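Just scan this pair:

***
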Amino acid sequence: KAFLHHTVHLSCHFPNSQKIDINNLIIFWQKDTSKVVHEVYYGQEKHENLSPEYKNRTKMDMGKWTLQLLHAGVEDEGRYECIIMQKRSEQSREVIHKSECSLHIIANYSQPEIAELHSGELKPNGYLNLSCSSSGGYPEPKEMTWLISYENITHSTTAHMDVSQDAVTKLYNVTSKLNILVPTQRHTNISCLLHLKEQLGSLASVPLGI
């Protein structure tokens, strides 16, 4: 996993137990078996065959057999393969190592924010209309729940969550709405929780006091 716009380090997991000189090796990184991410030919990095989206964004740490991918974006998610070949003669090469790793991108959602949609003064037996929104996150979250608390009692309800994805950045914006009778209890607090995937926990709004 890596955070959006950060540098990602992808390891080739090559032990090089035979201490082969890098000048006798070809190191080839590809994504989803179709895109050329990085190439090192006999100690020299080559850039002419790279897929356009990876030009000027990759560097190889020869000492650690690790590829650095700069400014990671959502479109970089996927499966990466490292292939190492050894020169046997002028014409022949032999694959001596292959490894794979998967990249998942994480972008932090904004703190959920509650907005009051009703106008005018709240009246007994009237309705309370609220929305809760969070934006700019990745991947798509699991769900949004509302917590209604009074006198040490908390009720939880899961409401429908509207999800939209930005066509350019691929980041998600989410909104949930709550429509309930105006609470008769005094000092009622209402908050919303955004539950994230990938064991990333949840984000809570600032409670709204009614």
Notes: The radius of gyration is 26 Å. The chain has two domains: 2-106, 113-209.
